[in-house]
């Protein structure tokens, strides 16, 4: 009998179902994505056709509960999909990841009315969204945000600016973190999270130019007297925005970790293949010990990263607090992606520096894994705090 895999809400799929799903995603990547990546990447062009195909594959509902029309996948299965996608083009995973973190915030903390209205639309990709937390003055210290929501009858009126918002242009909805009480202590009790759909007063300031992570839009969003009905406040009560936003980041960190595994794997595969065909001093470079040392370290980093992601996803699926596990996976696999991408570029010599190959993209994409969903400096601090809390002297 096939092994049963269970998600955080108790929904199940079999190992066979998982394999079928992964095979389907891999076929799509091989047939529809792989050959088109270089052109889209260098034109920094949004992959509309692939987004339509991702809707058909159900990826916008990957972790949304089956009762709302999603696939209800366990985090472990989801992480494998993200790794497979990121091995081919990391940018694509960003298009459904922040959408799914927004969805997770609604599913975990939303009112029944919010869940029934939004989750089926999120699951099909009819409404696609993003997580709007970061502001020009703060990213790590989210309690310092300045975007303000003021109650006015049955509405709130929002003013402020968000920046670096993935899917900010192509998406039509964001989970928007605001201040509803400037005086609250501790500061996070003055924050609230809204489901904010685009409309009058909610505009895209500008598209941001980046080192990597091309194709997907990163934008500045401006809110000027943006009026939003009070029933869009997630959970219905003010003061829990920070908790709701950070609650979704555990899944977000597992996702970034899985993306790191994808980049690390892609770098290893490219280096392993190239080192067998490139010859110097009369033999393939893989026969030089200096190259073998690199390949050995790269392969070990891939396997260790994969196992850390698997452990974090299992803890998440069991419904356990897993900020330490997710933090370890995110820290190690993102640093592994960066190291593997660098070594892959070195092994390719001048070809690693060429825009005609994928290798330079791994090198540009990897650093983002160390910054997004909480910088690696913060992950180390989170891990240490949890370590101490779980092991009192
Ligand atoms: C391509 C891209 C896409 C993004 N997508 C999104 C998105 O969709 N939604 C969103 O809300 N945000 C998004 N972000 C923003 C991202 O989450 C932030 O950049 C990140 O949280 C870091 O914040 P910051 O850039 O303001 O750095 P800062 O917070 O200013 O940190 C600067 C440096 O100081 C360190 N540091 C800060 N505080 C401490 C501390 N207490 N102890 C030790 N070190 C510290 C940091 O680790 C970092 O090295 C995106 C960013 C990029 C580049």
Question: Could you characterize what this model shows?
Answer:
By secondary structure, the protein is of the alpha+beta class. Helices cover 52% and strands 16% of the residues. It is built from ten helices and eleven strands. It has helices spanning 15-33, 37-43, 48-57, 75-109, 112-124, 241-277, 289-317, 323-347, 359-371, 376-390; strands spanning 4-6, 12-14, 129-132, 148-152, 155-166, 173-179, 191-197, 202-207, 218-229, 279-280, 283-284. The protein has a four-stranded antiparallel β-sheet, covered by helices on one side. The protein is globular, with a radius of gyration of 21 Å. The protein starts with a strand and ends with a helix. The structure holds flavin-adenine dinucleotide. Residues 98, 130-134, 138-140, 164-166, 210, 213, 218, 368, 371-372, 375, 377-378, 381 line the site of flavin-adenine dinucleotide. Flavin-adenine dinucleotide binds next to strand 3, strand 5, helix 9 and helix 10.
Strand order of the largest sheet: 4-5-9-8
Major sheet attributes: 4 strands, antiparallel
Strand proportion? 15-25%
Helix/strand/pairing class, anyone? alpha+beta
- Low-confidence runs (pLDDT<50, min 5 residues)? none
What is bound: which ligands?
A: flavin-adenine dinucleotide
What is the C-alpha radius of gyration, as a whole number of Å?
21 Å
Helix amount: 40-55%
């Amino acid at each position: 009998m096939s092994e049963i895999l269970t998600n955080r809400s108790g929904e199940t799929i079999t190992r066979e179902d998982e394999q079928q799903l992964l095979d389907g995603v891999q076929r799509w990547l091989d047939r529809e994505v792989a050959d088109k990546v270089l052109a889209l990447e260098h034109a920094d062009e949004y992959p509309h056709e692939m987004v339509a195909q991702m809707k058909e594959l159900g990826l916008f509902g990957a972790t949304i509960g089956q009762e709302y029309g999603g696939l209800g996948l366990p985090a472990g299965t989801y992480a494998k999909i993200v790794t497979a996608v990121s091995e081919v083009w990391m940018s694509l995973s960003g298009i459904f990841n922040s959408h799914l973190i927004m969805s997770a915030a609604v599913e975990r903390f939303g009112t029944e009315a919010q869940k029934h209205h939004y989750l089926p639309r999120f699951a099909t990709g009819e409404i696609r969204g993003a997580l709007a937390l970061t502001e020009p003055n703060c990213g790590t210290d989210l309690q310092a945000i300045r975007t303000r929501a003021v109650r006015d009858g049955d509405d709130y009126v929002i003013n402020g600016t968000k920046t670096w918002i993935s899917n900010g242009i192509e998406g039509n909805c964001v989970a928007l973190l605001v201040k509803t009480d400037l005086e609250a202590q501790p500061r996070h009790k003055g924050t609230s999270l809204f489901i904010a759909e685009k409309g009058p007063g909610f505009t895209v300031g500008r598209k941001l130019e980046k080192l990597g992570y091309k194709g997907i839009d990163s934008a500045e969003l401006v809110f000027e007297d943006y009026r939003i009905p009070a029933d869009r406040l997630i959970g219905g009560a003010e003061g829990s925005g920070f908790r709701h936003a950070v609650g979704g980041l555990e899944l977000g960190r597992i996702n970034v970790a899985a993306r790191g595994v994808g980049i690390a794997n892609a770098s290893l595969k490219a280096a392993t293949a190239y080192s067998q065909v490139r010859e110097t001093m009369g033999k393939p470079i893989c026969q030089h010990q200096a190259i073998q040392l690199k390949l050995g370290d790269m392969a070990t980093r891939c396997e260790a990263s994969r196992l850390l992601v698997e452990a974090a996803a299992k803890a998440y699926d069991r419904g356990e607090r897993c900020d330490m596990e997710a933090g370890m996976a995110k820290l190690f696999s993102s640093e592994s992606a960066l190291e593997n991408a660098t070594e892959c570029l070195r092994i390719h010599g001048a070809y690693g520096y060429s825009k005609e190959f994928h290798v330079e993209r791994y090198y540009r994409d990897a650093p983002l894994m160390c910054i997004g969903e909480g910088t690696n400096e913060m992950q180390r601090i989170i891990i240490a705090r949890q370590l101490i809390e779980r092991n009192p002297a």
